[in-house]
Structures
1.
Amino acid sequence: MIFPHGIALSLPPIRHCPICGIATQASRSRESHRDFDTFACLSCDTTIVESRPQPPAKGFGNL
Ligand SMILES: [Zn+2]
């Protein structure tokens, strides 16, 4: 059986709120982003935004 590429990324990472410690709700800051980078706590309204440096797109247009 062949799995489609990226199926392992379909589950959002579980991040816990640093304030109250419950699991936060993961979401994407941008629809185009594959990775979840925004984690919102539904209990205390704390929002954790992870901003990881994006690698420069190289070879773009050389497909
Ligand atoms: Zn919280």
2.
Amino acid sequence: MADKLPFKAKEHNDIIQVEIESKWTKDWEQWVLLTSDRHWDNVKSNRRLQKQHLELAKERKALILDLGDLFCLMQGKYDPRSSKSSIRPEHNVTHYLDAVIDTGVDYFAPYADNFAMIGTGNHEASVSRRCETDITSRFVEALRATSPNSTVQRGGITGFVKLQFKFGKSTQKFSYLIDYHHGYGGGGPVTKNVIQANRRAVYSEADIVCQGHVHDTWQFPITKRTVNNAGRIIHKTQWHLQVPSYKQHYGKGKENWENLKGMPPKPLGCVWLRFYWDNPQVDYNQASKRINFDRHIDIVEYGA
Ligand SMILES: [Fe+2]
């Protein structure tokens, strides 16, 4: 059996809480892989790239938060967009939805322990509405059943994930709050959806605000100032992260739907977060001010 990973996810009141067993050492780190819009069952989904990132997540003992549209599910009888040329042969069967979930479980099972949350996208929500089944819940339950150590939770279209870094039995804890949304709207060829960051910064108090859906990627910091309990002026940066997709819908720019609509090609990939201590040796009590994270967008060029 694989080594137990240093975190576990659970539902706690209205949020998903991930407790991360941390170490007070200079080389301690915790990776988080943020993904969205895999559209895994679509013929245009780049599975090679997903596999590469999933393997890296395993190597890094990363926890994975997926923001939805893990499945595309557009080839069902009920969907006007369905077309025979867009369905994978293993899904071209009578029980289409069951086949997608079953094959998805086989594919993602080796990484079941790494997933902390799988959220719901508009594609899953649309099937749930039409076919009276909760696709995300069915998939999460089946994935959890493949491994006794998996604590993967079902996420909604939007919600909060609290990363809680703890140290054994010590009551000392540091946390980072992530406010996620699957995403909405068309993004915009010029603004690339960055305008949403300014809107969400008005109403969200989280440390990280992230979303997928528009298949673009960027990181956009918004810094606010306030005063701490000691009367010192402090600046706090809220990171807005747009998480890309793994679906290569544009192709070579010939004659598919996106080409006809004049839509642009989009980046494929994921976002990595790496949490670490800035300076663990001194001033233990002030450490919460020094937990830090790097942001790294991992993308691939077309044809790579
Ligand atoms: Fe979406």
